[in-house]
């Protein structure tokens, strides 16, 4: 834990103002569902900040639990080193631990989980033990053909994480980072073959999750092919702000 004596007055005051703003916010537990490249990663920081939620990305949480050598992290590491999938119960347990953080007091925005109906059921059971439930599920609806164009046109500067798109956000010089002048690369997963496999998995495993939450009247379908600002407005309308 950081020593508060070492935190600047400016940072302390900014955090105080943030907490004062958040005190008036209602609790929200939100799930983002959509195929790769649909825009979840763009909208999750906006939702997190606007509604004072913690952002739970299961991949990041697993890596953090392993790095911190928590009980569940050690179990996850053991499974991964044995070439096994991390169990649904273990992932739900890691989410449960994360919800104890002060940053999650107002709720969370969950990205990357659940991917199957079984996972959704386990998540619901865990929340029910705390007297909680999922409030909103946002379905990022977008044609596969658009995703193919989005994904295959992505270029990144590995050192900084800056990303470009050959059509929608091209660098000033093709293949070159605007800031450093260093070469851009395409990630090995950003190709049509990998994308189609991931889309097949999404349609087979995750679309039933949308149906699961639709039956519970939790789903808002977003027109994810709209401009980023319009997608944000769709989310604001659904949350009643």
TrEMBL record:
<keyword id="KW-0808">Transferase</keyword>
<dbReference type="InterPro" id="IPR007862">
    <property type="entry name" value="Adenylate_kinase_lid-dom"/>
</dbReference>
<comment type="similarity">
    <text>Belongs to the adenylate kinase family.</text>
</comment>
<keyword id="KW-0547">Nucleotide-binding</keyword>
<dbReference type="InterPro" id="IPR000850">
    <property type="entry name" value="Adenylat/UMP-CMP_kin"/>
</dbReference>
<dbReference type="Pfam" id="PF05191">
    <property type="entry name" value="ADK_lid"/>
</dbReference>
<keyword id="KW-0418">Kinase</keyword>
<dbReference type="InterPro" id="IPR006259">
    <property type="entry name" value="Adenyl_kin_sub"/>
</dbReference>
<dbReference type="InterPro" id="IPR033690">
    <property type="entry name" value="Adenylat_kinase_CS"/>
</dbReference>
<dbReference type="InterPro" id="IPR027417">
    <property type="entry name" value="P-loop_NTPase"/>
</dbReference>
<dbReference type="Pfam" id="PF00406">
    <property type="entry name" value="ADK"/>
</dbReference>
<feature type="domain" description="Adenylate kinase active site lid">
    <location>
        <begin position="154"/>
        <end position="189"/>
    </location>
</feature>
<protein>
    <recommendedName>
        <fullName>adenylate kinase</fullName>
        <ecNumber>2.7.4.3</ecNumber>
    </recommendedName>
</protein>
């Amino acid at each position: 834990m950081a020593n508060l004596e070492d935190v600047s007055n400016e940072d302390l005051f900014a955090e105080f103002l943030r907490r004062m703003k958040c005190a008036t916010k209602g609790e929200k537990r939100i799930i983002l569902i959509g195929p790769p490249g649909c825009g979840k990663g763009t909208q999750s920081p906006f939702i997190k900040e606007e509604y004072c939620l913690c952002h739970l990305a299961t991949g990041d949480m697993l890596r953090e639990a392993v790095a911190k050598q928590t009980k569940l992290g050690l179990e996850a590491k053991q499974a991964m080193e044995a070439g096994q999938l991390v169990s649904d119960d273990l992932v739900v347990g890691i989410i449960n631990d994360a919800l104890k953080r002060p940053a999650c007091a107002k709720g969370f925005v969950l990205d990357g989980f659940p991917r199957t109906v079984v996972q959704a059921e386990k998540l619901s059971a865990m929340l029910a033990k705390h007297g909680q439930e999922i409030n909103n599920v946002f379905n990022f609806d977008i044609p596969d053909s658009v995703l193919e164009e989005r994904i295959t046109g992505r270029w990144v500067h590995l050192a900084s994480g800056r990303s470009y798109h050959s059509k929608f956000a091209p660098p000033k010089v093709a293949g070159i980072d605007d800031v450093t002048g260093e070469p851009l690369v395409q990630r090995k997963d950003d190709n049509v073959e990998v994308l189609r496999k991931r889309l097949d998995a999404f349609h087979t495993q995750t679309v039933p999750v949308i149906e699961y939450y639709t039956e519970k009247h939790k789903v808002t379908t977003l027109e994810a092919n709209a401009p980023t600002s319009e997608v944000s407005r769709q989310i604001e309308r659904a949350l009643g702000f």
